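Encode chain A's predicted structure.
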Amino acid sequence: MVDYGSDTAYQLQLVQLVQEYPQIQYIECPVQGQLWHKCRAINMALQQTTTPYFIVGDIDLIFAPDFIKKATELAKPDTVHYFQYGFLSQQESFLNKDFNSYQIAFKGNEEVTGTTLFPTVKLKELRGYDEFYHGWGAEDTDVHIRMKNAGLKVIFYDKEILLKHQWHPKVYRSKQSTHPFHSLLERINHVYMLQTQSTKRTVVNQNQDWGKIALLSDYEILTKVDYVLQLKATVLEVNAVLAQMANFRDELIYLEITAVSGVEKVKNQLKIIVGKKYQPVYDMDTVNNLLLETIIKQYRNNPYDYSFNRQKNIIQFKMYFQS
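Encoded structure for chain A:
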């Protein structure tokens, strides 16, 4: 069981519960100040797996009592199976019934790819789920595409409903939230997936470790800052520090980036009008997206903590740059 950055109060309760089930191997990741990274969490479990088959499933499902039995019957070393969902209504989801008594509102189609049975060896050969994907969107379909590209059969099992999806409210990000969020990430994920398909990708995560466990001991070092860089959201300062990151080794860097003031922006406009040199600037959303993209592409395994206060227009980011 991998807890990837739940609220600490929830993690404490979960630790107490897991102690009642000694057969469960529990991995707790102290990554509360990071982008959600489902693929890394899955790959952590995959790296520990020694069984011939590996099942990925969503947390909001009710499984048929014979699901594992059926999955075992279907399992083949050259085939991937994924399973049709039956979606429950809000009212039905609040009832306490046995699996067969739940009445589904509608069935999912083959585009719902959340629960999949993989041959473990084949999934490991492709280096697991692609850890480029952060946030939500496309990672499940991506791994199906790569399995097909590698010559495996990918079969949608819809002969019976073995999984019932519980209704739950959508969680919307509050405007007051300081949690890391990239405004275009879901759309980038989708285009990235299409490129995986068109270029027939199979093996991923080739330039960085995959399924790397986020250890508490690695994150405790985030309290020991080596350098503090206080920057304005100018093109020059931001681009320079993004390039400078490649030079940091075994150092904890703290960045604080604030918006350029309205007065400075007016001065810039006047300089442009009279043809003088001016200071090109970024808006804070652009700075945020650039920083998060850099983390995703180059430094996602490093211990880090990130926040963007949109009310105060300030980004605070610290990372331990490992050698």
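The chain has three domains: 1-30, 39-198, 221-321.
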